[in-house]
Each structure stands twice: as structure tokens, then as C-alpha cells.
């Protein structure tokens, strides 16, 4: 395809970090541990690992490859892969764009809570207890204000464009976040009660297995790797041709899964420590209480047990989490924005504001109808839209796209591709196994 004058990530590492930045976010630290805690712990972990490597990784390669081949926004990239059916390709792109906007609308609410728990304890420490209380307790007004703050931040970064906006944010703070996580895991495991959580996370109890758990694990894997909604396709379109896509995708998947795993090692023990210290986590019937906000009651409770250092570590943690959430949210907003700038020839600044504004309005709708909409939108997007669209991309790559073109595109950054194992397995795997696996999960 024509390479045009589009911006590209300036280095291979820049891309890995940007794609990892999209992948690592609330899905790892809020979504995964919450799901694991509500679905029996270790059983969920194991099914999740299978989903990531058997289903999500091959599709990540597929999405990145479509994007890099198209070297354009998702609508155009999909049309380049399926020129005979431009209408259907366009519809797929639009579906991805709508789904990713809906994801951003709930994501911004949860990311807003991070601000609350970042600033709250500081205000509390300087005596502004009422403001702190407002920031840390659930209310529509707080959710609205903090969500708008997070959306503004996302809009401002995306306005600056890929290379200097997205890449710069993604390249720095990931290592720091990992180190902090390890320190926190080390601390929590010394606390009374922690071993119960560790056991729940690592020792499987097969009685927890259910078909519903498999669907949840699949949705979580798609959500965590940003699949099925064109985010990775757009990022693929910004990668240079000499990047080895299968290898890079594997690095991103491994990093993302490692962060989710470490977050589980932190949150599940922290839950039981908090329970030991009097915070209510499970109801009498054994169901998780207020699972959406679980992480936000467990972590502050942990920081409180750390004495003076807790304030500092808590602030650092929430700052890093805001940034991790931001590197994900910008990869979402970039999808509709890239379509508007290239398909509608709009100025990036204009596109960012009206699209960001619409998403903020939709998010406000969720804020004011939280009980009805929040869970519904999450389940519609992550358990249905992401896997179904992901399956369509797999079918596209497996059945529609000419095999020699796929080969040529991946070979650009991986000259010895045909000799390796990847090329022996992946094409028919994406063609046959991925769609069958997904259908099985759905019909189970
Ligand atoms: N992968 C992100 C996370 O785990 O927080 C969420 C996400 C980003 C989902 C981008 C979808 C997306 F397109």
C-alpha cells in the first residue's frame, strides 16, 4: 500500500510500548482481579491464560497485520483487505468505532475514580476532610466531574497526534509501574490473611468452573489486549514495515498478561487482608460485594495499613494508574478520530473535540443511570462486540484476504517467516480454529 505521509512510531520499542500502553490499563488492575475474585480465582486465571494464548494472541497478529497493510484508518484498512465488498468492510469499521467509543464511555468513569483516590487522601492529610470524603465516596456528581476530567485529559493527548502524543506517554512509566507492583505484592504477602487470597488465586477449585466463566474469561482477554474494536488496527497502521509483527505481538501479550497476573497477586491477597481488618468483601452467601468498586476499597485499605509511607505509595500508585489508563483511553479515542480526519478530511483538533464530546455525553448518560447501564454496556462491549468483531477480523484474514498478500505483509519485518513454525500454524489456525473456538464458547 502507499505509505503516504502518515505519522509512524519512531522506533520498534516506541511501538511495543505504545501497543503495550493500550493493552495495559484498567483491564489489568481492575477488570482482571475483579473477575478472578468473582469467578473462583485460580480457575478463572487458568481459563484466562488459555484464552490469551489460544485465541487473543493469534487475533492480535491479525489485527496488527490488517492495520499495517492498510496504512490508514480502520475503515480504509478493512476496505483494502476486502476491496470486493467495500460496503461490508466499511460497516465493520463503523461497528468497531461505535464499540470502542462505548468502551471509552465506561472506561472514563472508572478511570475518574482513580483521580478520586489519588487526590482524596492528600486532601484528607491536609485537613480538607469533606472534599476528601466526596472524592472517595460513590455519587453521581463525583462520577460525572471526575469522568469529565479524565475525558479532557484523553482529548488533549490525542489532539497532539500519534508520534508526539501517544508515544511519549507510553515510553516512560511502565517500568516504574511494574517495580511498584512488585514492592506492593511483597508487602501485602506479609500481612495477616494474605495467604487465603494467594491460595484462592493459585490453587484451582474445579467446582467453580462454568460456561459463563469461559465467556467472561474470553471477554476479559479481548478487553485486556484491546482486540476487536480496531484500536490495535490503528496502532498497526502506525508501525514501520521492518517490525516483526508476530514477535512484537507476543511481547505485548506477554507483558500484558504479566501485569494482570501481578495485579492478581496483589489484589486477591489484599482483599483477604482487608477482610481480616474488618472491611466487608463477601456477603453472607459468599458473593462478592459491590464488585465494580472492589479494587477501590481494597487498595486504599491496604495503603492505610502502611502508615506514613502509605500516603506516598498510594499517590504514586494512583498517578501511575491514571497514566496507564490514559495510554489505553487514547488508543480508543484514536480509532474514531483517525476515521474522521482521513475519511471526512477533518482537522484533527476539530475531530477530537466533537467525538470526545459525544463520548463524554454518552458517559454522562451512564453516570446518571449507573445501575441500569454500567454493567450492561460493559457486558455488551466486552463479552459480545469485541469477540464477535474479533471473529470477523479472523474470518477476513483467514478466508477473504489472499494468502500470498498476508505472507508478503508479515514477511516485510520477518524475512525468514516461511521457514518458521509461526507460518506453518497461524494461517489455518486463524482460518479455522479461532472461529470454531469462539463459536464453541458462545454456544456453551
Ligand atoms: N486494554 C485496555 C485495558 O486493559 O485497560 C482496555 C482497552 C483499550 C480496550 C483499547 C479496548 C481498546 F480498544
Descriptive notes:
With 444 residues, the chain is mainly alpha-helical. 78% of the residues lie in helices and 0% in strands. It contains 19 helices and no strands. α1 (12-23) crosses α15 and α3 (42-70) packs across α19. The radius of gyration is 21 Å and the shape is globular. It starts with 11 loop residues before the first helix and ends with a helix. The model has no long low-confidence stretch (mean pLDDT 91). 4-fluoro-L-phenylalanine binds next to α1, α2, α5, α11 and α15.
Fold-level CATH name: Hydantoin permease
CATH-wise, what's the superfamily?
Hydantoin permease
Look at the structure and give the mean pLDDT.
91
How many strands, which pairing sense, and closed or not: the largest β-sheet? none
Low-confidence stretches: none
The assigned structural class equals: mainly alpha
* Strand composition percent: under 5%
Number of DSSP strands?
0
Task: Give the tags.
globular; Hydantoin permease; binds 4-fluoro-L-phenylalanine; 78% helix; 444 residues; single chain; mainly alpha
Task: Write the SSE topology.
Layout lengths: L11 H12 L2 H13 L3 H29 L3 H8 L4 H40 L3 H8 L3 H20 L2 H9 L3 H15 L5 H9 L8 H14 L6 H7 L7 H32 L17 H11 L3 H36 L4 H21 L1 H31 L2 H9 L9 H23 L1
Helix pairs in contact: 1-8, 1-13, 1-15, 2-11, 2-13, 3-4, 3-11, 3-12, 3-13, 3-17, 3-19, 4-5, 5-6, 5-7, 5-15, 5-16, 5-17, 7-15, 7-16, 8-15, 9-13, 9-15, 10-13, 11-17, 12-15, 13-14, 14-15, 15-16, 16-17, 17-19
Bound molecules: 4-fluoro-L-phenylalanine.
